């Protein structure tokens, strides 16, 4: 290691983030799943999804589409006045299971705020949060 004053480039730290930008959805996904893929990928930093994460993301997209389909069916059953039927109960159970899968996959990919922050960090953030939102501040005087 050389002695003396270091240049700025020698002192700078460039983090290496896994991934290669924003991955395109796999061809195996249908149109709805590809739309969900793009929404999720666009909402996260460019290198968030490395190749090791993409199979999990693919399953998440499928589960989200399944969950949305179950919600639509459940709404139709309730609109038809069959909220207490056996079919409504089966749909509600299937939707609950799909929602759990979406939650677990989202957390494993660290997509939810809860999965990105530790309990200590989130408590600190809440304590230091602004008491007034900028759009709620009125001119004083």
Structure, explained:
The chain has 141 residues and is mostly helical. Helix content is 56%, strand content 0%. The chain contains six helices and no strands. The longest helix has 26 residues. It is extended, with a radius of gyration of 23 Å. The mean pLDDT is 82.
Task: State the share of residues found in helices, binned by percent.
Answer: 55-70%
Main structural class: mainly alpha
Assess the beta-strand content as a share of residues.
under 5%
The whole-number mean of residue pLDDT values reads 82
Radius of gyration (CA) equals 23 Å
Shape: extended
Write the layout of secondary structure elements.
Blueprint: H1 8-11, H2 31-43, H3 54-79, H4 86-108, H5 113-116, H6 119-127
Helix pairs in contact: 2-3, 3-4
Provide tags for this entry.
141 residues; mainly alpha; 0% strand
Describe the structure concisely for a colleague:
By secondary structure, the protein is mainly α. It has helices at residues 8-11, 31-43, 54-79, 86-108, 113-116, 119-127. It has six helices and no strands.
